[in-house]
Design brief:
- This protein has 605 residues and is an alpha+beta fold.
- The chain has four domains: 2-72, Alpha-Beta Plaits; 82-153, RRM (RNA recognition motif) domain (Alpha-Beta Plaits, 2-Layer Sandwich), CATH 3.30.70.330; 197-355, TATA-Binding Protein (2-Layer Sandwich); 431-589, TATA-Binding Protein (2-Layer Sandwich), CATH 3.30.310.210.
- The protein is 34% helix and 21% strand.
- It has a six-stranded antiparallel sheet. A six-stranded antiparallel sheet has the order 21-22-20-23-25-24. Strands 12-7-9-8-13 form a five-stranded mixed sheet.
Length: 605
């Protein structure tokens, strides 16, 4: 994408004229100028040089009385779905840009381009060629906050082989990593963490962090290659304000350290005597794994960094605040090391859940897991929008059926037809799962006059019943769920979430339950595998504990039990994998000739 087209060229222009202009503006070029009547072409050594030529010359430099127009040279066959939009107002919010682009079609990607200009530049790919053409016609030259947008095609290398897809709906499809709130303030790094660093700072230090006319915050973003949002308007009158830092993990940590140093200096200058701890915000979804079993992970971080770390209680969560406050006390150096370790654990938790979610989406055809809202506001870490996600226990009534097993609110029930209204392709067979819950949680699952379990059954498209207690002192009760894979997913998802909401598991615990599924006795060996190989692979893949008890007596249907224990995703993955094994066994059984049947005759050659 380094070949340039120069338009509006005077008939008097020569190659020497262009050589002079490029030399004057210190723009390198890697080949001779090809001058035609009314236009010219030239190659630049890299994209940076090409972007500089466009930014510096296009519409700004005259040659023989004509303003030059400079843009990427794009062969006709590659003028497809990709556009470059330049001269975007530097303070424009991403949400505004998103909604503007979405007017013309489905945007598959929108990436910021690093430039030396004050205005922002983005590369946009639409789902279809006609959508890109419409966007170019409407946006090129249009005014936005006194800035005239400049839109041009950029080479679409996939155009020749793929052809445009016309199936994209208007709006935005699933895209890559979340972006910062404003495209113009600091270039985004190429490899950005999906989870930003969120921290709380005392309100009295916000002015020092921003600096005179924003000079200090601009320096921080430039030095650390990060995008920093200070949410000054949130929680008016509050003693602390949140800051969101988007960058690589290293960039986030460097920005955090710099902010801590600025606060310490300001405290000395203003004779502020109280200790200023580092306060990191983390979504409640990930805090349990940060703490670790019996607090081991947190204790290790404290020992390794020489800090004291406390985490706000679960009870502090509100409908609009799903984040826990992780307070770190120690020197700036120690706090900085602790921040790196804390965020490393949080990112690992997020990546683990995303990997499980993506794998799960392949195991249940037609199930749109992105609609579940398992993470904050579509994608984790989208700055202030995270505060729109209710925590566990914040839901009430029927609306709570749209939540994730971790408590994040997702419009799953609104965005997906129920299992009964839209059966999956091929009408998958119904499955029976026995899910064991704490006996004390039965009332919460049933609800007042059975309303909750009825609503859950209707929502999931499954039959859900609670088996009688096996004895007076039984600590667990069995929930019998009957339905196809999608219904199982939705019903179990909601039960896991309900138990977390109702605090049947502590703030430091993940919700882990045991599920039983029955398999034909002749297939139990296939689940176990030779020398336990298959069951061990299952456990490694899913992170669930999978046990096929030995010496079981098959029931009247010649079936035995497989026990699965773990958190929601682990249980779901294990169930799906076992069902795959059973389906394979059934297919093999169908292809076998019945006992006593004559062997098939060999084919004649």
């Amino acid at each position: 994408m380094n070949k340039l087209y120069i338009g509006n060229v005077s008939a008097e222009a020569s190659e020497e004229d262009f050589e002079t202009i490029f030399e004057q503006w210190k723009i390198p070029h890697s080949g001779p100028f090809l001058v035609k009547t009314g236009y010219a072409f030239v190659d630049c050594p890299d994209e940076k040089a090409a972007m500089k030529a466009i930014d510096v010359l296009s519409g700004k430099v005259e040659l023989h009385g004509k303003l030059l127009e400079v843009e990427h040279s794009v062969p006709k066959r590659q003028r497809s779905c990709k556009l470059q939009i330049r001269n975007i107002p530097p303070h424009m919010q991403w949400e505004v840009l998103d909604s503007m682009l979405a007017q013309y079609g489905a945007v598959e990607s929108c990436e910021q381009v690093n430039t030396d200009t004050d205005t922002a530049v983005v590369n946009v790919r639409y789902a279809a060629k006609d959508q890109a053409r419409l966007a170019m016609e409407k946006l090129n030259g249009s005014m936005m906050e006194n800035y005239a947008l400049k839109v041009s095609y950029i080479p679409d290398e996939t155009a020749a082989s793929e052809g445009p897809s016309a199936s994209g709906r208007r709006g935005f499809n699933t895209r890559g990593p979340p972006r910062s709130s404003s495209p113009g303030l600091g270039a985004r790094p190429k490899v950005q963490s999906d989870i930003p660093l969120r921290m709380l700072v005392p309100t009295q230090f916000v002015g020092a962090i921003i600096g005179k006319e924003g000079a200090t915050i601009r320096n921080i973003t430039k030095q650390t290659h990060s995008k920093i949002d200070i949410h000054r308007k949130e929680n008016a009158g509050a003693a602390e304000k949140p800051i969101t830092i988007h960058s690589t993990p290293e960039g986030c940590s460097n920005a955090c350290r710099t902010i801590m140093e600025i606060m310490q200096k300001e405290a000395l200058d203003t004779k502020f005597t109280e200790e200023i701890p580092l306060k990191v915000l983390a979504h409640n979804n990930f805090v349990g794994r940060l703490i670790g079993k019996e607090g081991r992970n947190l204790k290790k971080i404290e020992q390794d960094t020489g800090t004291k770390i406390t985490i706000s209680p679960l009870q502090d969560l509100t409908l609009y605040n799903p984040e826990r406050t992780i307070t770190v006390k120690g020197s700036i150096e120690a706090c900085s090391r602790a921040e790196e370790e804390v965020m490393k654990k949080i990112r690992e938790s997020y990546e683990s859940d995303m990997a499980a979610m993506n794998l799960q989406s392949n195991l249940i055809p037609g199930l749109n897991l992105n609609a579940l809202g398992l993470f904050p506001s579509g994608a984790p870490g989208m700055g202030p929008s995270m505060s729109n996600v209710p925590p566990p226990g914040a839901h009430g009534g029927c609306s709570s059926f749209g939540c994730s097993p971790y408590g994040g609110e997702g419009q799953f029930w609104a965005s997906m037809p129920s299992a009964s209204s839209q059966p999956l392709a091929g009408h998958p067979e119904s499955e029976t799962v026995h899910l064991f819950i704490p006996a004390l949680a039965v009332g919460a699952i049933i609800g007042k006059q059975g309303q909750h379990i009825k609503q859950l059954s209707h929502f999931a498209g499954a039959s859900i019943k609670i088996a009688p207690a096996e004895g007076m002192d039984a600590k667990q009760r069995m929930v019998i769920i009957v339905g196809p894979p999608e219904a199982q997913f939705k019903a179990q998802c909601r039960i896991f979430g309900k138990l977390k909401e109702e605090n049947f598991f502590g703030p430091k615990e993940e919700v882990k339950l045991e599920a039983h599924i029955k398999v034909p006795s002749f297939a139990a060996g296939r689940v176990i595998g030779k020398g336990g190989k298959t069951v061990n692979e299952l456990q490694n893949l899913t992170c669930a504990e999978v046990v096929v008890p030995r010496d079981q007596t098959p029931d009247e249907n010649d079936q035995v039990i497989v026990k699965i224990s773990g958190h929601f995703f682990a249980c779901q993955l294990a169930q799906r994998k076992i069902q795959e094994i059973l389906a394979q066994v059934r297919r093999q059984q169908q292809t076998k000739p019945p006992a006593g049947a004559p062997a098939p005759l060999p084919r004649r050659k």
